[in-house]
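As described in the Methods, two query proteins were run sequentially through the folding procedure within a single session, without resetting any intermediate state between them. The first query and its resulting structure tokens are shown here.
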Amino acid sequence: MGLHRSLPVLLLFIWFLPLPILRAQSPSSPTSPARALDVLLQDYAYRAFVRPRTGIPYDGVVPTNLTGIKISAMRLRSGSLFTRGVSMYKEFKIPIGVIVLPYVERLVLVYQNLDSLPTDYYPLPGYTYLAPVLGLLAYDASNLSAKNLPELDVRASGEPISIEFSDVGMVPRGTIPKCVWFDLHGLVNFSNVVSGNTCLSYQQGHFSIVVESIAPTPSPVVAPAPPGGGSNEAPPRGAGQGSSGGGKKNNSRVWIIVGSVVGGLILLVLLGLLVPWVQKYKRRKKMQQMEKAAEVGEALQMTSVGSTKAPAATVTRTQPTLETEYVP
């Protein structure tokens, strides 16, 4: 009985053990500048609804310290979004078959255009932005005066959502533009650009077009010749120095892999112990049922037959009938 009670508790403890490690490595948190900006823009986008009509976008006004950011809000029915989609909402084209979870009768799509402020909220070391960061987030529309609402989960079940950027900078020679997508957890995903200025996605988030930054080639620095003659060339700057950002990223991956492997091995060991315990428990249960059935049955008296004792019934339930006693 002690093993029966402690084993589920131990399983739950092992299951949740790797979670703090994974969360600790998450690149985003609810208090990050980007997430705080989403909360603020949702509030100001909802203020644009005075007498809202379904399917019509309403442009909002941001505070003065966020000048340059553009926002808009559009209220839709979940059923209409799934069956009809949205032909064009700013730069976003939403196809039919978009699913909203959890289900709400009405939702609001909040549009964001960070314009000239992408690096302030979505820094991307090693890359240069060619287009503004565009955001599309979904919220519940049951209360248009609510603040600090959680985002709904929006996923395209058929064709992907397309983002057609209207203002894309010149692509530097020797580079290839890439679509970048920041999900709500802060993870960064790259994909290919379609038709020169279009990105595709099956989920909501923030999107832009970037290229890898080209670092200028440092010119060699020649030190002055020593008095004894000869010359010494100074080594290039940064020689022997590793990238701290790359080291942190590798450490994060290592910890995630180690935590997952250790948790999986411990779970397998516990499952190996759980299977024999279940089999033993089933046998014990079966024996208890057999003992209970034996106690309920009718007890037979013991009768001596020669030198051997055998059970004998006291009453014969069915009386035999002789052929001579049968009267038709």
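Immediately afterward, the second query was submitted; its sequence and tokens are:
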Amino acid sequence: MHIVTDSKYVVDGMTKWLPKWERVGWVDVSNSDLLQELVALLRTRSATTTFRWVKGHSGDPGNDGADRLAKEGARKARPHLPLHLPAPRRFLKCGVEMASLTQSLAYRAITLSRQQTVNEATAQRVKIVIDEVQRWSGHALTPMTLWNSLRSDVVEPKVRDFIWKTLHGAYRVSSFWARIPGAEQRAVCSVCGVTDDMTHILTKCVAPGQREMWESARHALLRAGVCLPPTPCLGLYLGAPALSIVGENGKERHAATRLTRIVLSETAHAVWAARCERVVQWQQEPHRVHSLLALKSRWTAALDKRLWLDQQRTRLALPGRRPLTVSVVESTWEPLLDPSIDRLSNWVRLSGVLVGRQV
């Protein structure tokens, strides 16, 4: 059997690093569960297996076809995915070799062997996000895909942290204050008189902020051919980093996908920031609220900063970020640019380019 793949990690792992991985008991090996299954399946064969690496997205028919089928499979609901029997464990080495064992390695191995408990509240929030994303897009999303999407550099680090903490219920809202004697009133929205949880803050509060920014995001994405629901949706906010926009031909619209992820995630964070300013910084002025102009300026400024960062990434190597091509930035932001600069072919290299269309 001859295996052709665009993953150097898999090729080198199976041909060079496998002995070392087994000596250390697969500790600190990325995707070790999948790799161990691959090793066990290959060892059930008596014939020779060879590996060959090809460059991804280079026009190789087999590789491009595999990518297309993998994307189609990832979008299918779980009942439609193929099932297979697990690989026999007798073909795998278990544990760490004594000659390779160190105190540090033993500690990490023991830590990894302990069964991790799943927080029920977090699992429920993730399920809500997955259901709402599937209801809107029609594409299945797995919890692993959602968590992995928070590592994407399309979304700003502070926004990724906000989404991660919201999914884990780490912010001090609603039930957090209800358990503290004398602070119970902070668990209730001072404007609406209901429990001030994240669902209420991001999607239901009638105080100026969430509806106005959602409308701005909805009209902005409509220019890119993306139609959001008329009312704010918690699942689309928290699932934004994992969203994919697919065209009528069934292929992903990469520019629209990237813009949607940016706009929705930045909007969610802007709504939260405006709420914190109103509730925390202005707590001595309970009747003070944001003006519509201030909210629009805050939302536009957040997108202007993201556009500026994308421009910087076309010419500077920012820490922890992959460089961007000019074509990626152009295709992402063109629907939102001020019409007066549309005719400038080199606007990506210019300073002072702003999100300027009426959204």
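The longest helix spans residues 254-281. We note this only descriptively and draw no conclusion about the first query from it.
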